[in-house]
Design goal:
The structure is a single chain. By secondary structure, this protein is an alpha+beta fold. A hairpin with a 2-residue loop joins β3 (about 80-90) and β4 (about 90-100). The chain contains 7 helices and 5 strands, in the order αβααβββαβααα. Strands 1-2-3-4-5 form a 5-stranded mixed β-sheet. It is globular. The longest helix is centred in the N-terminal third of the chain and has 19 residues, at about 30-45. It has helices at about 5-20, 30-45, 55-60, 110-125, 140-145, 165-170, 170-175; strands at about 20-25, 70-75, 80-90, 90-100, 130.
Amino acid sequence: LWEKLEKRTRYSIKKGQKEGVEVISADIDEIAERFYHAYEDGMKLKSSNLKPAQFFDFVRKNFEQNKDYEIFVAIKDKEEIAYLLVFYYRKFTEYYMPAFVLNKKHLNGVSQLIWESMKNSIDRGMYYYNFGGTLKNQNSLYLFKRGWFAKDFHYNYYIFGDIQRINSVGINELKKHYPYFYVFSYDRIRV
């Protein structure tokens, strides 16, 4: 796997290792608040749609740690510098939610976390490490994923819905009730 990573990705991992960044698996109850604050700070910079503050409560309530998901933490000099939440399902590891302390980005904690979670996935017998979809306008994200030996995989969403009912409800009402989910292709809804 190491040889298949792009040179810049290997460099990023090595840099973190040289900086003395360590990776641990952490308990959600001990880490959730700090993880969420790092995530929130990063997403605000991107002007992106935040998951709610209760997100980790939902994870705790609906999934079993170390079976369905795992949280990895990068530590430098006893300080948490980055976090990564991955989900496990069948033979898939789903790269779900990374975050880092903004003034510690230069330590490449997220690269360390991805690398360690990939190795952990192999040890678990997982076959696929899924970085998720990338929109056509997300070129830098696409290049980042490609650096990890991610391969393009075309897939379709098959969503069966009552278009008349959805049209009567409207986009705003749909977004209000399902703010963090892909529910329906909005271009099919009349405004």
